[in-house]
Amino acid sequence: MENNIIINKNYTNLKTKRMKQLEMYQNPRSQRDHSNDFLPKKRTQKDYSDDFKLMVVREFEQGFIRISDLSRKYGIQAHSTISKWVDEFGSKKSTDTLKIKLREVKNENIFLRKQIELLNKQYRR
Q1: Cα 112 → chain centroid
Q2: What ranges do the domains of the chain cover?
């Protein structure tokens, strides 16, 4: 007898859920009772400010941290999000700028080595 009561109670709960489900699709959104929604809700997309995006892109362009590490650091779900920000907000000439900077540093290095050579010759006399 007790098993029949439990089964009937479970059936009644399922029937009630199904009725609420049908009601949700038949009634306009404004008339629904949202307190009993049991369907999974859609994921909400986070909106990031342009300042935040620029900060993340600058940090990536410095070259000390990878995109995957940045996404973990700031709690950004998809790595592709940061990649899109780099395309949108990043300096497209960053590799050219780095090449120019490298050339300047190499030239400075050559100049300083020559200075050291000259100073060593003068010191040995």
Answers
A1: 43
A2: 2-36, 49-90, 95-125
